[in-house]
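W.,

You were right to be curious about this one. When I first looked at the sequence I had no strong expectations either way, so I just let the prediction run and decided to look at it fresh. Below is the sequence, 274 residues in total, followed by the output.
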Amino acid sequence: MSTAHENNIEKLKTDILENTGNSIQEKFNRVVNLVTVLRSQCPWDRKQTPSSLAHLLLEETYELVHAIDENDDAELKKELGDLFLHLIFQVELAQESKKFTLPDVFDALCDKLISRHPHVFGEIEANSEQDVLKNWETLKLREKGRRSLLDGVPKAMSELLRAYRVQKKVSGVGFDWESAEEVLEKLTEEIGELRNAGTKEEKEAEFGDILFTIVNYSRFIGTNPEDSLRKSTNKFIKRFMALEELVKQSGMSWQEHSAETLDAIWKQVKQDEK
């Protein structure tokens, strides 16, 4: 490491510790400089690559969503900071490899949003959300030179969210059910096919069709299936922990409680919530 670089790092450290600044620009620069210093002087940070940080980025995103679900503003502020740190870290790695810079990221973002909102920055008319979605998907196909509307659906998504994204994309070009009632009828049909399935493979296929149809129905009632399932899982966890506490207070083991007794306690827990 050159003496000039070392001197620059020491200056950045001093600025980070002493000059917190009041403007958004100053605070933004403080975070960027902090990442630069960590990359230079922290052994752990120095070892990281875009790939090694990917799973941590995903974890931070889930923690952010959890803070939103809990309406915890103090935690939300912290998790937004953690996520922002990871984004700046990825840019720092790209800059070191001379792939792109932070200004490049901002330019690409603004250029994309402007080009995909011709109804705001151009002469195209879009009088409804559906019009906007159709224009959006058409423009994405043209920009990226994709052969299919579905080429850009990330494979790393949870399958529940991936199914939702696929359905949203095809609905944006008009390939969709007419009503929620039609989707419910399809769900009834799929359940019947599952009942009649014989082999394990057939049951697996029909069960997948049921899940896919349920995801479709979620769109028609205006909810994201990932959000719905997460909230239901969180609700179950909360109720089960209350059940555990009541079983503990009873002085009896789980094995000493009959299924009927546990069901009665479960109903009590649900009633107590009200």
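Here's what jumped out at me. The chain has a mean pLDDT of 88. And, maybe more interesting for your project: Residues 268 and 274 are 10 Å apart (CA to CA).

Coffee later to discuss?

I.
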